[in-house]
Design goal:
The protein is α+β, with helices and mostly antiparallel strands. 48% of the residues lie in helices and 14% in strands. It is built from four helices and five strands; from the N terminus they run ααββαβββα. A three-stranded antiparallel β-sheet has the order 2-1-5, covered by helices on one side. Strand 1 and strand 2 form a beta hairpin. It is rod-shaped, with a radius of gyration of 29 Å. The two termini are 20 Å apart.
Length: 151
């Protein structure tokens, strides 16, 4: 059987329509998975002294949480920590009252725009290669074409 004979068969034409619809559906599903992975944001703590770090308590409203001392410790610059006997010592470890360092919570995207675009391209390529392999297998089995014929 060759391709011209197959094109005369109704089941083959219906299979081609199903194949194209399945391809678009699989691409849409791949893009949806990519979106769900790349759209997540990361919570950061931004200190008034310019220091910024990932929030150690993601998902919690840390203004009402009892981690004020911990966040104040993390907001201190290493230069602000006193040195005793050649070792940096944080006075908060010894029960000192923390400095009133202001901080706020900010959310940033986990991935940059170029990284997101790369993930979408990768998703498109993976689905396309899978469907190309399916079509080549079909023609190898039914039409007896070489699997990797010259393009």
């Amino acid at each position: 059987m060759d391709r011209s004979t197959l094109n005369q068969k109704a089941w083959y034409r219906a299979l081609k329509v199903f194949f194209v619809l399945a391809f678009f559906l699989a691409q849409g599903f791949g893009f949806w998975i990519t979106y769900s992975v790349t759209s997540k944001k990361v919570s950061f703590v931004k200190c008034d002294n310019g220091k910024e770090f990932e929030n150690p308590y993601p998902g919690l409203d840390f203004y009402r949480f009892s981690n004020e001392n911990d966040l104040s410790k993390r907001c201190q610059n290493p230069d602000e920590i006193p040195v005793i006997n050649g070792k940096k010592v944080n006075p908060l470890d010894y029960g000192a009252v923390p400095e009133n360092l202001e901080y706020s919570q900010i959310s940033k995207p986990r991935y940059s725009v170029s990284e997101k675009a790369g993930f979408y391209v990768l998703s498109f390529i993976i689905v396309s290669v899978i469907f190309w392999l399916i079509s080549r297998t079909f023609f190898y089995v039914f039409v007896k074409e070489k699997f990797l014929k010259s393009l």
